Amino acid sequence: MNTFVAILGLAFLILIHEAGHFYTALAVKMRPRKFYIGFPPPLARVRRRGIEYGIGTIPLGGYVKIPGMHRPAARDLDVRLQPIVRRTPSLVPKVEGVKRLLAAADYDGARFALEDLGTALRQAGEPTDGLTDVRDALSDDAYWRQRPWKKILVIFAGPGTNALFAIVVFAILFMTGGGKATATIDQVVPKTPAAHMTLHAGDKIVAINGDAVKKASDIPKRISSSHGRPLTVQVRRGDRILILGPTRPEKIQGVYRLGFALQGKGLAPLAAFGQSVKLTGIVSRDIVKSLTHLVHKSGREQISSPVGIVRGSSAAAHEGTDTYLWTLGLISLSLALLNLLPLLPLDGGHILLSLLEAVRGRAIAREVYERFSAVGIALVLLLFFIGLSNDVGRIGGG
Fold this sequence. Notes:
The protein contains 14 helices and ten strands.
């Protein structure tokens, strides 16, 4: 059940990412043609008002098909129409006519010639599906025709929506108890020293090793500064005062801990939002810093694929709703930052090239896009396979 919840959470993050692209594109009159969760072939699809909505078989993300991401080129017709031209050689002059106009960048002329070619295909009993992408690329709402600010806005909207979701989730958690910590235990993690010494949710910690706890912030400091030495914990449980332990803390992620979480005192909305933005900034800085360490083995070992993300989310769901929501917010923020890497086909690559076009005052050649995409796809696949290898090793106990 926890794994199913984790998969739904990841699917939701992908959904809001693509929805950011989708609705922003609609808002700036750049009408998308498809909206998919996962990649084709489709498991299910439906068409509404000229837009195809679907769920893909390959669950590695999702996409919104915005028309004309690149300027149309003569060779765009070749792959789709070569089998047709072999069957119906009489179509060659019309196909070559469209290709010549595209090569000469006469896009208005190419649009009319393409419609003429479509009529000829129908009269010959041939399908016209091969013209769809070129027709979209020649349309007035094609991406490449838009002003730079529109292109950047549509592309940034995906990771921007993920980042906004993280901020909202963090703010809600700060309002509902994730704010200033209290001395009362909220939850105890199973199979940890805290569980072995029979600490319970609702216990109020009053002393550690006989020294009274004056501030809730003293509790983690006292435990971490023990350096693994046995600790006793004095708690108020209902009307009773109990002394539990002694028990040795365990080193978890470099810090000695017993394995419990303290209840937090909810913050006012404005304060919660401020803390959420602050936390988002700190986490973003740390994630960006970790990306600079990928050349080192220790940095590469931190990479996860969707398998690892689901596994981690499932573990968080097992620990409780709040823990799961914190984890979901962090994953959403990570997805936002990953997608802003300046690599094609990631969003950051499209933003970078749009900025370069704005600075140059003219379009970047199609060949540059393609070479940049080849390098980007290779690097993204490398990151994916490193992450998958790490996750397989973790599952196998390596």
